UniProtKB/TrEMBL annotation:
Source organism: Marinihelvus fidelis
Domain L-asparaginase N-terminal intervals: 3-159
Lineage, broadest ranks: Bacteria, Pseudomonadati, Pseudomonadota, Gammaproteobacteria, Chromatiales
Listed name of the protein: Asparaginase
Residues annotated as signal peptide: none
Pfam assignment, any one: Asparaginase
Active site: 12
C-alpha cells in the first residue's frame, strides 16, 4: 500500500465533551493527529466528508460515501464511522469492486484517555493492508464481514451475528 484514503463521517471517535452544555458533539476529525502520532510509514489523504452521529447517517449520506470512493483511484480506504450504523454503511458499499474498504470507529471518544480509538484505528490499518478486496468492519480487535457482525449495545462491543 503506497497511499491510504481516509474518509471521516463523524461518530463517537470524533466526539468532544462540552462541560457547559453537558453534551457530546461531533468535533474535528481526529484521524490525522492519530496517524501522525503513530508515525505511519505510508502517505494518506483525509476527506472529512461529514460530522454526524451515525444514527443520523441516511441513504443520501451513504450514497455520498460510495460516490466519493468511486470517484477516487484509491484501492485502500479507511472510513471512520459511528458504531450504531457502521454495519449498515458497510453493507451499502459492497458493490464497490477491486478495493479494500475497512470501517472502524470507537465506543469512547478519541480524546478520552481510555478510548479504544487508537487500538481500533491500528487494527483497521493492519486490516486494510491484508484483507481481500471487499468491505470489512474492524472493531474490538477483530476483522468482521459486515454480513456476520452486529453491535451488542448492552455489552458495548461487536460480536458475531447469530445466523
Amino acid at each position: 500500500m503506497d497511499r491510504l484514503l481516509v474518509i471521516t463521517t463523524g461518530g463517537t471517535i470524533d466526539k468532544i465533551y462540552f462541560d457547559d452544555k453537558s453534551d457530546y458533539q461531533v468535533g474535528d476529525p481526529q484521524i490525522s493527529e492519530t496517524l501522525n502520532a503513530m508515525n505511519v510509514a505510508f502517505d494518506f489523504d483525509v476527506i472529512p466528508l461529514m460530522r454526524k452521529d451515525s444514527l443520523h447517517i441516511d441513504g443520501e449520506d451513504r450514497a455520498l460515501i460510495a460516490e466519493t470512493i468511486a470517484d477516487s483511484d484509491a484501492t485502500h480506504i479507511l472510513i471512520t464511522h459511528g458504531t450504531d450504523s457502521m454495519v449498515d454503511t458497510a453493507l451499502s458499499l459492497e458493490g464497490l469492486r477491486g478495493r479494500r474498504i475497512v470501517l472502524t470507529g470507537a465506543l469512547h471518544p478519541a480524546r478520552f484517555r481510555d478510548s479504544d480509538a487508537v487500538f481500533n484505528i491500528g487494527c483497521a490499518l493492519g486490516a486494510v493492508q491484508c484483507v481481500e478486496p471487499g468491505v470489512w468492519v474492524a472493531m474490538n480487535g477483530r476483522i468482521w464481514n459486515p454480513r456476520r457482525v452486529t453491535k451488542n449495545v448492552d455489552a458495548n462491543r461487536f460480536e458475531a451475528q447469530d445466523d
